[in-house]
């Protein structure tokens, strides 16, 4: 824009005072001020509209990028899901065939190892926070016993007479 300093504005004001005259100068100054204000508002509106259109184009570009990324993610997830379902179905079919034919090699891991004894579980008993194997290893009593039961347990056997 044109750069007006104080000295240039004073010169323009003096020329306007001489040319227009002191009677009409205030009205002309108000008119010029309103016209300049309207021009500034118009320029500001044009700038805002240009900025909005630029932002709109950027948003449209971002939207297309996000849609492309979403399509890529969707296709990746769908392919992984299809591959996992196929793997699960093949494993399921193999296990079903092993159950139908128990002599196959796949059924071997399902059998219990020799010497294994299933633990007897009593659902009525409260399970403690410390496991029984730890108590047995460290010599902690796992079962409470009354005094009479303890005496009967450790009483020496009677001699037959």
Automatic annotation (TrEMBL):
A GO molecular-function annotation: protein transmembrane transporter activity
Keywords attached to this entry: Cell inner membrane, Cell membrane, Membrane, Protein transport, Translocation, Transmembrane, Transmembrane helix, Transport
Gene: tatB
Stated name of the protein: Sec-independent protein translocase protein TatB
Annotated region (Disordered), positions in chain: 139-161
Membrane-topology descriptor: Single-pass membrane protein
Gene Ontology cellular-component annotations: TAT protein transport complex
Lineage: Bacteria, Pseudomonadati, Pseudomonadota, Betaproteobacteria, Burkholderiales
Family matches, as InterPro entries: TatA/B/E, TatB
Extent of Basic residues compositional bias: 152-161
PANTHER family found in the cross-reference section: SEC-INDEPENDENT PROTEIN TRANSLOCASE PROTEIN TATA, CHLOROPLASTIC (PTHR33162)
Protein family membership: Belongs to the TatB family.
One record GO biological process: protein transport by the Tat complex
Function as written in the Swiss-Prot or TrEMBL entry: Part of the twin-arginine translocation (Tat) system that transports large folded proteins containing a characteristic twin-arginine motif in their signal peptide across membranes. Together with TatC, TatB is part of a receptor directly interacting with Tat signal peptides. TatB may form an oligomeric binding site that transiently accommodates folded Tat precursor proteins before their translocation.
Subunit structure and binding partners: The Tat system comprises two distinct complexes: a TatABC complex, containing multiple copies of TatA, TatB and TatC subunits, and a separate TatA complex, containing only TatA subunits. Substrates initially bind to the TatABC complex, which probably triggers association of the separate TatA complex to form the active translocon.
Record keyword Cell wall biogenesis/degradation present: no
Subcellular location: Cell membrane; Membrane
Keyword Cytoplasm: no
């Amino acid at each position: 824009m044109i750069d007006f300093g104080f000295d240039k504005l004073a010169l323009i004001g003096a020329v306007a005072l001489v040319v227009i005259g002191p009677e009409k100068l205030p009205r002309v100054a108000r008119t010029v001020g309103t016209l300049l204000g309207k021009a500034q508002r118009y320029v500001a509106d044009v700038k805002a509209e240009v900025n909005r259109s630029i932002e709109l184009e950027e948003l449209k570009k971002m939207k297309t990028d996000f849609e492309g990324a979403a399509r890529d993610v969707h296709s990746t997830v769908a392919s992984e899901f299809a591959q996992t379902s196929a793997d699960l179905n093949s494993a399921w079919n193999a296990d079903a065939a092993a159950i139908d034919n128990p002599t196959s090699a796949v059924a071997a891991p399902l059998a219990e190892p020799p010497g294994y004894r299933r633990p007897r579980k009593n659902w009525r008993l409260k399970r403690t926070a410390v496991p029984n194997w730890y108590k047995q290893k460290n010599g902690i009593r796992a079962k409470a016993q009354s005094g009479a039961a303890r005496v009967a347990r450790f009483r020496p056997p009677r001699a037959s007479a």
